């Protein structure tokens, strides 16, 4: 199992290996490493200081003591290249660091939470991006002085929006993924979700952008120096190019060395960015950009019979209404005051057509209503605790531990970037505080419990390497991992083929019986209700129209809507005539 948990780390190592196997990637990485090393070791490698001048040696050619010769002021060119590289590369690092510090956290925050911060930050980013960088740098130089480090700080501010926009866009996309919702439901905090499921998607593009922005910073800095508005006396590759240009007629060779250093560094950064992109995108799993963005449907339980009666001790909903704010400030109510109970050890089915409000009910219990939605009135008691209006932090503590969730789409609720083992272990470590080894052992047990064959191997696999039925078993195992009291299962078999559906229903029944779980089963399938549920609540247009023991409701429905639902079940419809070709039909006629 520990191997399974380490799968994600192994995969990251795999991307690095792919980078090294790419000749361009390996060559650019090697070149950059050599450049950085040489520049870092300038005091050791340089024959003399960058400003040490000997006018008598001006324009002297290469010699043993001065391998690249001397410049117009009799300064050693190799020493100036090495020391100048410190300023040039250091400046680029400073710019990138500032851009990263400003752009990435703000992009994460804006993409994940949206709202006012997102609007304000996007507005500022658009404004900064509209400014012409070179003009701003020239103006900064006039105001703040010619220190190249200050200009690089200004450049960092100017390129930060590039990181912001990229990160914000990716995060806003990932935030809607079902596996992020699943992580929330399993009780992980926002910080953990971002660290685990969001950063991994952002990481690749950010690394690529770093390489590109570093190249841009070096180019811009050199451009300023070349125009003579850079750091003046400070040795940089751009300043060397400027000086060499002034003597181009006399010693054109002086252009070569700083030009080569600049060209090699910028070229290597661009090639590295390309190779990195290839290495990170060539993953065994589905690339992040190709992940389906579909959201799952709903879950929930209703029980009109419970109104006014003693409230169930596990889940008790009274008068629950859910409303969404319209742009004009008014509310659109989508659930209109429902009552529902689930007792320990009881399976309650919630049935109804699409749009009847089942999902909104389930999400209210889980505390994960989409933006704009809220519980506008009523009470939801889960295991003795009122959760309507509960702050998110406290609601999160209940998810995973007290109430767990099995979603409809098994595949889109598993993060393609992590092994099954890793995805089972993470919530147990952070919700239950288990050590990695304990959680790994527990994950193996859970897979055995949900009857997955060869569980050790499955733990090491990625989601795309297992079947849909197996993925649903994994999600059920995940839901069980923190030993919840209430399980909300959202159409848990809809996405599976018929034979696998029966197996998964058997599994739910067994778990419920063994663990005394209360289950709220959202389904449109009355066959599933008849097979599994002790009681059923029928929902229509945001109201529970009928509720009662499954046998009674299916045998003797009281509400016309329940009767219509039952009439729509094909099994009860009169058998259709067998198909015959058109000619045969006309002959009979
Ligand atoms: N984000 C939202 N903003 C506004 N209205 C919404 C939103 N989400 C759902 N609704 C409305 O809430 C009502 C109930 O939707 P809900 O998703 O609970 O239905 P459902 O019974 O679960 O259907 P399905 O099985 O298709 O998911 C629908 O009329 C829907 O239009």
UniProtKB/TrEMBL annotation:
<feature type="transmembrane region" description="Helical">
    <location>
        <begin position="226"/>
        <end position="242"/>
    </location>
</feature>
<feature type="transmembrane region" description="Helical">
    <location>
        <begin position="120"/>
        <end position="143"/>
    </location>
</feature>
<comment type="similarity">
    <text>Belongs to the binding-protein-dependent transport system permease family.</text>
</comment>
<keyword id="KW-1133">Transmembrane helix</keyword>
<dbReference type="GO" id="GO:0005524">
    <property type="term" value="F:ATP binding"/>
</dbReference>
<keyword id="KW-0067">ATP-binding</keyword>
<dbReference type="InterPro" id="IPR003593">
    <property type="entry name" value="AAA+_ATPase"/>
</dbReference>
<feature type="transmembrane region" description="Helical">
    <location>
        <begin position="149"/>
        <end position="167"/>
    </location>
</feature>
<feature type="transmembrane region" description="Helical">
    <location>
        <begin position="198"/>
        <end position="220"/>
    </location>
</feature>
<dbReference type="InterPro" id="IPR025966">
    <property type="entry name" value="OppC_N"/>
</dbReference>
<feature type="domain" description="ABC transmembrane type-1">
    <location>
        <begin position="85"/>
        <end position="281"/>
    </location>
</feature>
<keyword id="KW-1003">Cell membrane</keyword>
<keyword id="KW-0813">Transport</keyword>
<dbReference type="InterPro" id="IPR017871">
    <property type="entry name" value="ABC_transporter-like_CS"/>
</dbReference>
<dbReference type="GO" id="GO:0055085">
    <property type="term" value="P:transmembrane transport"/>
</dbReference>
<dbReference type="GO" id="GO:0005886">
    <property type="term" value="C:plasma membrane"/>
</dbReference>
<dbReference type="GO" id="GO:0016887">
    <property type="term" value="F:ATP hydrolysis activity"/>
</dbReference>
<feature type="transmembrane region" description="Helical">
    <location>
        <begin position="254"/>
        <end position="276"/>
    </location>
</feature>
<keyword id="KW-1278">Translocase</keyword>
<dbReference type="InterPro" id="IPR003439">
    <property type="entry name" value="ABC_transporter-like_ATP-bd"/>
</dbReference>
<dbReference type="InterPro" id="IPR050388">
    <property type="entry name" value="ABC_Ni/Peptide_Import"/>
</dbReference>
<keyword id="KW-0812">Transmembrane</keyword>
<keyword id="KW-0547">Nucleotide-binding</keyword>
<feature type="region of interest" description="Disordered">
    <location>
        <begin position="285"/>
        <end position="304"/>
    </location>
</feature>
<dbReference type="InterPro" id="IPR035906">
    <property type="entry name" value="MetI-like_sf"/>
</dbReference>
<dbReference type="Pfam" id="PF00005">
    <property type="entry name" value="ABC_tran"/>
</dbReference>
<dbReference type="Pfam" id="PF12911">
    <property type="entry name" value="OppC_N"/>
</dbReference>
<dbReference type="InterPro" id="IPR000515">
    <property type="entry name" value="MetI-like"/>
</dbReference>
<protein>
    <submittedName>
        <fullName>Oligopeptide ABC transporter ATP-binding protein</fullName>
    </submittedName>
</protein>
<keyword id="KW-0472">Membrane</keyword>
<feature type="domain" description="ABC transporter">
    <location>
        <begin position="317"/>
        <end position="566"/>
    </location>
</feature>
<comment type="similarity">
    <text>Belongs to the ABC transporter superfamily.</text>
</comment>
<dbReference type="Pfam" id="PF00528">
    <property type="entry name" value="BPD_transp_1"/>
</dbReference>
<keyword id="KW-0997">Cell inner membrane</keyword>
<feature type="transmembrane region" description="Helical">
    <location>
        <begin position="92"/>
        <end position="113"/>
    </location>
</feature>
<dbReference type="InterPro" id="IPR027417">
    <property type="entry name" value="P-loop_NTPase"/>
</dbReference>
């Amino acid at each position: 199992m520990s191997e399974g948990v380490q799968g994600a780390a192994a995969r990251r190592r795999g991307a690095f290996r792919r980078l090294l196997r790419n000749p361009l990637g390996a060559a650019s990485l090697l070149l950059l490493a050599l450049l950085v090393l040489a520049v870092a070791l300038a005091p050791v490698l340089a024959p003399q200081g960058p400003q040490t001048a000997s006018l008598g040696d001006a324009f002297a050619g290469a010699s043993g003591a001065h391998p690249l010769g001397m410049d117009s002021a009799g300064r050693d060119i190799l020493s100036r290249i090495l020391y100048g590289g410190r300023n040039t590369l250091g400046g680029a690092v400073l710019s990138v660091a500032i851009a990263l510090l400003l752009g990435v956290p703000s992009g994460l925050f804006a993409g994940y939470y949206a709202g006012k911060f997102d609007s304000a930050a996007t507005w500022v980013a658009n404004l900064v991006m509209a400014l012409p960088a070179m003009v701003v740098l020239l103006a900064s130089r006039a105001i703040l002085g010619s220190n190249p480090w200050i200009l690089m700080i200004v450049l960092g501010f100017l390129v930060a929006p590039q990181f912001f926009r990229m990160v914000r866009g990716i995060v806003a996309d990932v935030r809607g993924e079902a596996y992020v919702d699943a992580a929330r439901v399993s009780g992980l905090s926002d910080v953990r979700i971002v660290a685990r499921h969001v950063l991994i998607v952002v990481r690749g593009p950010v690394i690529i952008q770093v390489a590109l922005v570093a190249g841009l910073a070096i180019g811009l800095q050199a451009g300023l120096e070349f125009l003579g508005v850079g750091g003046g006396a400070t040795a940089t590759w751009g300043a060397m190019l400027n000086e060499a240009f002034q003597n181009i007629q006399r010693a054109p060779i002086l252009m070569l060395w700083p030009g080569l250093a600049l060209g090699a560094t910028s070229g290597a950064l661009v090639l590295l960015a390309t190779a990195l992109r290839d290495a990170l995108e060539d993953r065994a799993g589905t690339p992040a950009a190709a992940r389906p963005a579909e959201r799952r449907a709903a879950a929930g339980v209703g029980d009109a019979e419970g109104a006014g009666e003693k409230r169930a001790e596990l889940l008790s909903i009274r008068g629950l209404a859910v409303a969404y704010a319209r742009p004009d400030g008014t509310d659109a109510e989508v659930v209109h005051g429902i009552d529902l109970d689930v007792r320990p050890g009881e399976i309650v089915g919630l049935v109804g057509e699409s749009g009847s409000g089942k999902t909104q009910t389930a999400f209210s219990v889980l505390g994960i209503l989409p933006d704009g939605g809220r519980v506008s009135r009523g009470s939801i008691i889960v295991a003795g605790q009122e959760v309507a209006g509960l702050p998110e932090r406290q609601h999160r503590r209940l998810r995973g531990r007290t109430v767990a969730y099995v979603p409809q789409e098994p595949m889109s609720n598993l993060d393609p970037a992590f092994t099954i083992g890793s995805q089972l272990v993470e919530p147990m470590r952070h919700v239950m505080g288990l050590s990695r080894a304990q959680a790994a052992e527990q994950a193996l047990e859970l897979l055995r419990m949900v009857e997955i064959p060869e569980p050790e191997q499955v733990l090491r696999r990625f989601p795309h390497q297992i079947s849909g039925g197996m993925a649903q078993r994994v999600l059920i195992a995940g839901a069980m991992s923190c030993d919840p009291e209430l399980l909300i299962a959202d159409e848990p078999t809809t996405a599976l083929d018929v034979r696998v559906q029966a197996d998964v229903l058997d599994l739910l029944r067994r778990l419920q019986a063994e663990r005394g779980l209360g289950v709220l089963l959202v389904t449109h399938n009355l066959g599933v209700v008849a097979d599994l549920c002790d009681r059923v609540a029928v929902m229509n247009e945001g109201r529970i129209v009928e509720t009662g023991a499954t046998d009674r409701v299916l045998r003797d429905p009281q509400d016309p809507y329940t009767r219509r639902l039952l009439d729509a079940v094909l099994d009860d419809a009169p058998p259709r005539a067998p198909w015959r070709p058109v000619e045969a039909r006309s002959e009979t006629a």
